[in-house]
């Protein structure tokens, strides 16, 4: 501990501990074919987020603060629902899961093996699918 460490606020200490979540933006319907193929190698997660929803923002923050997996274990896709509603509709149709916001889908071998929405979303749930 350095001499100036005692002047750090709790917020500064927390900032140092934040790990960047390895999001991949889902911005094109054609990416769904790619991620289905990728799901044969490792689990794929689609996080559907509404940028205008307070609940979605809170759930996203909680998810990111608890997330501790590597990209070698699981791959995360982030879907901005307001910009890409057409992709969300295709996700619902293709994978047979009714649209929710916020929502997390876990895909393995081209199939949804788990999904959560709203306050049920938890980064800890993902460890079960590695």
Number of domains: 1
What percent of the residues sit in helical stretches (DSSP H or I)? 25-40%
> What is the name of the CATH class?
Alpha Beta
Order of helices and strands: HEHEHEHEE
CATH superfamily: Glutaredoxin
Q: Record the strand order, biggest sheet.
A: 1-3-2-4-5
* CATH architectural label: 3-Layer(aba) Sandwich
Identify the overall geometry: globular
CATH overall fold name: Glutaredoxin
Number of helices: 4
Radius of gyration: 16 Å
User: Roughly what fraction of the amino acids lie in strands?
Assistant: 15-25%
Question: Could you describe the 3D structure shown?
Answer:
There is one protein chain. Helices cover 31% and strands 22% of the residues. With 130 residues, the chain is of the alpha/beta class. It has one domain (18-129): Glutaredoxin (3-Layer(aba) Sandwich), CATH 3.40.30. Strands 1-3-2-4-5 form a 5-stranded mixed sheet, with helices on both faces.
Feature tags:
single chain, 130 residues, Glutaredoxin, 4 helices
Write the layout of secondary structure elements.
Layout lengths: L9 H8 L5 E3 L5 H8 L5 E6 L4 H13 L8 E6 L4 H11 L7 E6 L2 E7 L13
Parallel strand pairs: 1-3, 2-3
Antiparallel strand pairs: 2-4, 4-5
